[in-house]
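Sequence in, structure out. Go.
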Amino acid sequence: MKTEQARVASKYAEALIELAYQAGDKVAESIAGDLNAINEVVASTAEFTIVLNHPAIRSDEKKRLLLSLFEGKVNELTARLVSLLCDKRRLELLTHIGGEYVKLLRTRKNVASATLTSAEPLSDASVASIKTKLTEKLGKQLELDVSVDRSLIGGLMLRVGDQVLDGSLRGKLQVLERTLLSV
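Output:
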């Protein structure tokens, strides 16, 4: 179940993506980049985070600080969102809004993210073949992140959204162990 903060952030993200798509696909993409950049700047400096979350600092001062840093460098809709969040004293939602916005953007663009983990490095041809089959199966464009985890012993593990397909030797041994222990 979502927390209250996540629900509110989701509403802001939904409104933002609607406005962004009214302005065009490229605007929607640029806002995702803007939100990511702003969140990186805020997260990279502990003092900046303290200032933005400090209750004694007035929201108009926070707004002036943020807009002086980002205005003209980010899309107008992004600047308006930051301004609104300052006015509503909801700056803590900025990270959540960024994450929700990216999820909504991927859904609209019919893009799925997946992680493929193997015990040994895979050839480019193998990765391309797996990606092609997954794209056909899912009916979506696929962003595939490939990694190596030697603890799998052998085989592959695929994570698409919340689903995990474990075809690793380690996974099969764990299933066998649970089966034997339940007897």
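Check: Residues 112-181 form one domain. The chain has two domains: 4-107, 112-181.
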